[in-house]
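## retry 2 of 3
previous attempt timed out at serialization; input unchanged, resubmitting
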Amino acid sequence: MSGTRPVRVVLSVNAFSVALDEARSAGATVGLVPTMGALHAGHRSLVERASTECGCVAVTIFVNPLQFDDPSDLAAYPRDLEADLEMLAGAGAHIVFVPEVSEIYPGHPYPPATTVRVSGASDDLEGRFRPGHFDGVATVVTKLFAMAGRCRAYFGEKDFQQVAVVRMLARDLCMPVEVVACPTVREPDGLALSSRNVHLAPDDRRRAAVINRALTAGAAAVARGEDRPARVRETMLRVLATVPGVDPEYAEIVDALSMSVPERLTGEVRLLVAARVGDVRLIDNVGALVGVDVGPYAMSSKEISA
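## retry succeeded, writing output
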């Protein structure tokens, strides 16, 4: 890590909470970046954003077993702590919390008696194809927010439904956390950066670019004034069908705030796709405004609401 300031690694809940309390006592705003490791440029962008807005940047690296419905998916999740810490040191992180599973879930391997569920936003899309996933996300995020205390928490819009779930739990539980959504970081061909991309075979990597082309086509239809969800859905599915080996699980367009599908589209909407490319499941999304051209990759929610 030559040329960079080493990060402070903490392993226990108590050490993490104390470190952030000390930072606030010294007058710093705390920026929290929850991750599951296997960090890439998308994660780096979150840390860099936090470092420009907060005096203390804390990153958590924890592969949360509660949000995996397939044990083999959990076992295959990539892990490279040394590379993660090197990236975080260069991106401006100060504290990195790397707990064992038993530190977060003291009764592990038995399931926790208390979990958190966010109704509505977590029910469809990823919630339908990955039962229990968002209960696991909401539970661990609630725990991390409780440990961190007052802070700004940074999440990538690549997991837009997750951002919606986290915003709702922070609001409903009156947590002293400002949730900050940051734009998706993409490859030159539009593929969203993801820790799962490393598992794509070369041919599948080329095929995967069709996901963003489908979203872009759907967003273009919205920009032209198409307000019927079924027509936008058909547009995305037609594009996905042009590439063999891409098996869509869903292609949907929802109201960006409620995550529900309206009878007619108005205002700010979100187009979302999940598809299997070879053996790898990928998700992506873009934002759009009905009747407004917002460019080739649409807009982040911050840009839309600005």
